[in-house]
Amino acid sequence: MNRRELLQWLSRGMATTIAAIIGLPGIRYLSGKAPSVTEPESDFRRLKRLQDLSVGRPVMVPVLGSKQDAWVQSDQQVLGRVWLIRRPAASGAAETEVHAFSSVCPHMGCQIQMQPSSQKFVCPCHRATFDLNGERQNDPVSQEANHAPRDMDPLACRVVCDSSSEDAWVEVKFETFQIGSKQRVVRS
Ligand code: FES
C-alpha cells in the first residue's frame, strides 16, 4: 500500500466512524425507540398523605418521575397532574375512600380546573364542565352542550399504610389517555 492509498483508507475509516456517531441517535429517534417518558408501567405512585386531604375538597397533585429524550434522562420531572378527592366514609365503613382523575380534558387536552363557587370541575379552554364524580354536565350558565367527548378519566387509587412511619398515603396508578375520542384508550 503506497502513501496515497494509505491516506485514502484512513480518511474513509474516519468518515465512517463520524457518520456512525452522528447518525445513531437520529436512527433511534426515527425508529420511534426514543420514548419521551420512561417510567415503569402499572406502578402505583405515592402522591399525598391522607391527612393532607380534606373530605370533599379536590386537590390537584403533580406526578413526578423520570423523563428521557434521545440523549438525556432527567429525574423529578412533572409527568402530569391528577385530581384527588377524599370522600366521606360510607356509613358502616371503617375507611375513607379517595378517588383520582386525570386533570387532562378529554376534549383537546387542556388542564381541568376546579371552580370553587360551583363545586364543579371546569375546563378553561371550551368550558367543558364535570361534577365531583367526573361526570359531564351542561354548562350551568349557557346550558351549552359539553364539548368533552367523555367523562373525566378515572385513575386507579388506593390508600396504603407506611410500615415505618404508619402514615396513610394515597397512591395512584398514573396513566394518560387519548384525547378527542368517546372511548377511553390508554396511551401510557
Ligand atoms: S379542551 Fe377542554 S373543553 Fe376543550
Give an overview of the whole structure:
Helices cover about 15% and strands about 30% of the residues. It is α+β, with helices and mostly antiparallel strands. The strands form three sheets. It has a four-stranded antiparallel β-sheet, with no helix packed on it. The longest helix has 28 residues, at about 5-30. The protein is flat.
Which H/E pattern describes the elements? HEEEEEEEEEEE
The average pLDDT value, as a whole number, equals 82
Number of strands: 11
Low-confidence stretches: 16-41
Q: Which ligands occur here?
A: FE2/S2 (inorganic) cluster
Strand content: 25-35%
Oligomer: single chain
Q: How far is the N terminus from the C terminus?
A: 57 Å
Helix content: 10-25%
Instruction: Quickly count the helices.
Output: 1
What's the gyration radius in Å?
24 Å
Let me know the largest β-sheet. 4 strands, antiparallel
The coarse silhouette is flat
Write the layout of secondary structure elements.
Elements: H1 3-30, E1 44-49, E2 59-68, E3 73-87, E4 97-102, E5 113-115, E6 120-122, E7 129-130, E8 136-137, E9 154-155, E10 157-161, E11 168-173
Antiparallel strand pairs: 1-11, 2-3, 3-4, 4-9, 5-6, 6-7, 7-8, 10-11
Bound molecules: FE2/S2 (inorganic) cluster (FES).
FE2/S2 (inorganic) cluster binds at residues 105, 107-108, 110, 123, 125-126, 128, 147-148.
